[in-house]
Specification:
Chain A: One of its GO terms (biological process) is transmembrane transport. The complex is a heterodimer of chains A (608) and B (326). Chain A is α/β, with parallel strands linked by helices and 608 residues long. Chain A has 19 helices and 22 strands. In chain A, the strands form four sheets. Chain A has an eight-stranded mixed β-sheet, with helices on both faces. Chain A has a six-stranded mixed β-sheet with strand order 6-7-8-3-9-10, with helices on both faces. In chain A, a hairpin with a 2-residue loop joins strand 4 and strand 5. Chain B folds into two domains: 105 residues, no CATH class; 210 residues, MetI-like fold, CATH 1.10.3720. Chain B contains twelve helices and two strands; from the N terminus they run ααααββαααααααα. The chains are: A alpha/beta (608), B mainly alpha (326).
Chain lengths: 608, 326
């Protein structure tokens, strides 16, 4: 292996242009050799992006280099001289965390990559550039690269676009590659693919790579030299395993602690209080929802986007039901149907014995007291110019029949219940924290005495401490008011912590429904296994994660292939999977899965 | 295929629009007070002559019947004949009697076809002038949002939008043609006659183009892909001209489609001031003379031009930015 020194960063200090302000990067020094992978961890806001921009001589106008040098193959990249041969984009390449907005939306992806290649390597003629780009698009496993070359950025999914951006970065054969949080916007299974791909490419193309991320577990895939960037300084540098095993600094320790735990979490999942002969609170039976979209290039044909395809489940009273899945799997549509904001095309929703479709509009408003939806983003969910008290009493006013005086006592009682001080009654929401806003949403729902709360990513966007406080609040409210929760989330660690029963959704269908412990320790469906394998944690997984790394992307909900919808990505798919759609069946008591593999496994045990 | 489908659909839609406009104009003209027959036969003619001529010309039939007759003619490319203009080109006056029911009156189609190219030339040249003024000012203003070019762009557009066109026309005639004798001012005998009216028209359109360009350019320059283009190794020139300009052009193209109505309004006044023999001039004269067939013809032509240009605009917007829905 070639081990010549390629990048030498010495005492790099960067700060705002204004004097007397503290620097953002403070005395960063490191050396990088060819083919070496250097992982840098920093929490969000820790100076990752500034560091990557500083290395690529690409600081925003508000920042300036205060001290230090960046030597690329012996040349100082920061000194502007006419003899300098160093070129950003050719010698150092950058991949960012926003693939979808990295290219001009009005030009085809391939054309733009070739344009870049030709402008940094003018000695290669346009035809060579085009061929090289197509070849590389194939190398990053973009299907039919020659056609994709002429497609526009809006036609690429996030994962595909990130692959294209990798091509954009490596096409000019850079010596150094800077990858700044490149998996941040991607789903876990796609992120795992991208990291594996990048790793492979770096070794094959002999690029020195600086991988900056705010997700510590991802660096474990490289396992090489790892640095912790904290408040603009490198506080620690060690090989990955040693860093995890024996962190030397407080910053590293808290970083390791903040990585979510799925399997080694101490507290077991909460247990549902059973009652004799109880009926499900909500029965969802065979709901479908298809959106029609006009097809471009035709007069009057529509294409059907099958968002939810026949979901059947029972939600028991006092249970914490979790629904997990990746983007585009239909969980938002399902959420909207559970909250009856959208009606299913076919299938029924029965709440406490009443079919929601059969209610008159007036009866429906009454019935809505029983099930309430909590939205994902507490910032956009609250009207900015309405006082907190008014917001909470809104739904009471809509229903009427309660004197004003009584309303105020009801509102303050609800506020007290969720832990909001009564003095906030007349406050506006703009100065409130995320946690407080979230509590307003909860109070708003609670004031109607609901039986069922539907929580759409409610606990995802907040920090760990606030999250555990809200989890406590939820379980207290549950004990007191006999509440049932449905959590819809992509966050496996959160679901592991709070849900008693979990459904896994893929392409509009439920592929597995099982109790918390069963699902996480003995998943049945290959997709569940893949999802768990890709979960970014530092733990030992209960099965071999490498067996379930997925290839490719989910099929489009417009052209759903026959047979099992997961067959195109499933590492264990066989002939039957591509012709016959597996039904969701109870293979073991309380554990449902839709997979032919389980049928054959059962047949084998039956035969034996 | 997509483009072909779009064209077919939009052209069919266009016919519908033209049909509706023509019907509205047709009805309104016959509902408003003022009998054209009275004007044709002259003030001194006895009422029974007025009735006789009117009946002969079919002006006493129900409006729907008249409209139907008119549409049948239209489909054959016949827009009827002017009430006031004889073939000789003179305007009929009270003195000599020209029988408007006879075929010695000028066909509207000829009148319009004669003047449409002249007006289109005026509009086209005005648009080119406006773009020549707006592009440097607007792009510079968009690139430096906080510098003097932006202030300049703002000043230019405020100034232009506040100048009344008739005043500017008179001032330009006074200086450029009377005092300096550089350009001809009145009438039309060649291309040089277009320049002055086109200048005045362009001052009317330019502020909107400058405004749109500065804002859309400023926005595009903030976009992440422009920022990232630098680290991808593209030159500043390529970033600005190949990418930023292309993206900023989409709102501009759409604006031009809408600005067309301003242009048509402006043409009326300016052609009249410069005695420029275009459609605008013809409109003013025909409205004053209640020359129904000519007014109708002009209305149909204008709406056809409008529909056509908007089809082009949408097509261009799509070619620039494929995300635009056709």
């Amino acid at each position: 292996m070639d081990l010549s020194l390629i990048l030498d960063v010495d005492n790099l200090t960067v700060g705002p242009r204004a004097h007397g302000t503290p620097p953002i990067l403070d005395g960063i020094s490191f050396r990088l050799h060819t083919s070496e992978i250097f992982g840098i961890y920093a929490e969000s806001g820790g100076g990752k992006t500034v560091l990557s921009r500083a290395l690529a001589d690409w600081l925003p106008d508000s920042l300036t280099y205060r001290a230090g040098r960046v030597l690329f193959a012996g040349h100082d990249t920061l000194k502007k001289t006419s003899t300098s041969t160093f070129k950003v984009g050719r010698d150092i390449a950058y991949i960012g965390s926003k693939p979808q907005s990295s290219l001009d939306p009005t030009m085809p992806v391939g054309v733009q990559i070739a344009e870049k290649l030709h402008s940094v390597r003018p000695e290669w003629n346009p035809k060579e550039c085009r061929e090289r780009v197509i070849q590389l698009l194939g190398e990053v496993r973009i299907p039919s690269p020659a056609e994709r070359y002429y497609e526009y950025p809006s036609k690429f999914s996030g994962g595909m676009m990130q692959r294209a951006m990798i091509v954009d970065a490596i096409c000019a054969e850079p010596a150094v590659l800077i990858a700044d949080n490149i998996t941040q916007p991607l789903d876990v299974t796609i992120a795992a693919q991208i990291v594996a791909l990048l790793h492979d490419l770096c070794l094959r193309h002999k690029m020195a790579t600086i991988y900056l991320t705010s997700s510590l577990p991802i660096l474990g895939q490289f396992g090489k030299r790892t640095a912790v960037l904290h408040h603009g300084r490198f506080v620690e540098q060690q090989p990955f395993e040693q860093l995890i095993a024996a962190p030397q600094t407080e910053a590293a320790r808290s970083a390791i602690d903040s990585v979510p735990r799925i399997w080694s979490a101490g507290e077991g999942p909460p247990v549902r209080r059973h009652a004799e002969g109880e009926a499900p609170l909500m029965r969802v039976a065979g709901v479908h929802r298809t959106y029609r979209q006009r097809k471009r290039g035709t007069f009057n044909t529509y294409r059907n986007i099958q968002a939810v395809r026949g979901v059947t489940l029972d939600i028991m009273p006092r249970e914490n039901f979790g629904i997990v899945g990746e983007s585009g799997c239909g969980k938002s549509t399902l959420t909207r149907m559970l909250a009856w904001l959208e009606t299913p095309d076919t299938g029924t929703l029965v709440l406490g014995g009443t079919d929601l479709a059969k209610l008159s509009p007036r009866e429906l408003i009454r019935k809505r007291n029983e099930f309430q939806l909590l939205l994902q983003d507490p910032y956009t969910a609250l009207p900015p110019r309405t006082t907190v008290g008014r917001m909470i009493e809104e739904s009471l006013r809509i229903r009427g029949g309660i004197p004003r005086k009584e309303m105020r006592t009801k509102v303050t009682a609800a506020m007290a219940e969720v832990g909001l001080p009564a003095k906030l009654y007349d406050a506006l929401p703009n100065a409130l924290s995320t946690g407080e806003r979230q509590r307003i949403s909860i109070a708003r729902a609670l004031i109607l005495d609901p039986k069922l709360l539907i929580l759409d990513e409610t606990l995802s966007a907040i920090d760990q401490r606030e999250q555990s406080k809200l989890i406590d609040l939820f379980s207290r409210l549950q004990a007191k008011n006999d509440l049932t929760y449905v959590f819809i989330s992509h966050d496996l660690a959160m679901v592991r912590k709070v849900c008693t029963r979990i459904a896994v959704m893929y392409l509009g269908e439920m592929v597995e429904i099982a109790d918390n412990r069963d699902l996480f320790f003995d998943p049945q469906h290959p997709y569940t296994k893949a999802l768990l394998s890709a979960a970014p944690t530092l733990e030992e997984k209960p099965f071999n994660a490498a067996d379930f790394l997925l290839e490719g992307e989910p099929p489009s909900p417009i052209d759903i292939p026959p047979g099992c919808s997961f067959a195109s990505r499933c590492p264990k798919a066989f002939g039957r999977c591509r012709v016959e759609t597996p039904r969701l069946r109870e293979h073991q008591p309380g554990r449902f899965a839709a997979c032919h593999l389980l049928d054959s496994a059962e047949a084998e045990t039956a035969a034996a | 295929m997509l483009i072909l489908e779009f064209l077919v659909k939009r052209i069919l839609q266009g016919f519908l629009i033209i049909g509706i406009t023509s019907f509205i104009i047709f009805t309104l003209l016959r509902v408003v007070p003022g009998d054209p027959v009275r004007l044709i036969v002259g003030g001194m003619a006895p009422p029974d002559v007025v009735e006789k001529v009117a009946t002969k010309m079919g002006l006493r039939d129900p409006i729907v019947v008249q409209y139907g007759r008119y549409m049948v003619g239209l489909l054959q490319g016949d827009l009827g004949q002017s009430y006031l203009r004889p073939r000789s080109g003179m305007v009929a006056a009270g003195g000599q009697y020209v029988d408007p029911t006879k075929s010695d009156m000028a066909p509207v189609t000829d009148l319009i076809l004669e003047r449409l190219p002249v007006t289109l030339q005026l509009g086209g040249v005005a648009l080119v002038f406006a773009l020549l003024i707006s592009f440097p000012v607007g792009i510079a203003g968009g690139l430096r949002q906080n510098g003097w070019p932006n202030t300049l762009a703002f000043a230019v557009q405020s100034l232009f939008v506040s100048i009344p066109n008739f005043w500017l026309a008179i001032v330009l005639i006074l200086f450029l043609s009377v005092k300096l004798n550089w350009l001809p001012a009145l009438g039309y005998q060649g291309f040089s006659y277009v320049i002055l009216p086109a200048l005045v028209l362009s001052v009317e359109i330019a502020p909107f183009i400058i405004r749109t360009l500065t804002t859309s350019f400023g926005e595009v320059m903030q976009a992440p892909f422009i920022d990232e283009a630098r680290v991808r190794g593209l030159s500043r020139r390529r970033i600005v001209y190949a990418h930023a300009l292309r993206n900023a052009a989409v709102p501009l193209v759409n604006l031009l489609g809408i600005q067309l109505s301003t242009l048509i309004g402006g043409v009326l006044v300016i052609e009249y001031i410069f005695d420029y023999p275009g459609l605008g001039n013809l409109t003013v004269v025909s409205v004053v003379g209640r020359d129904f067939p000519v007014i109708q013809g002009i209305a149909i032509t204008t709406s056809a031009v409008f529909v056509f240009i908007n089809i082009i605009v949408d097509l261009v917007a799509y070619l620039i930015d494929p995300r635009v829905e056709l």
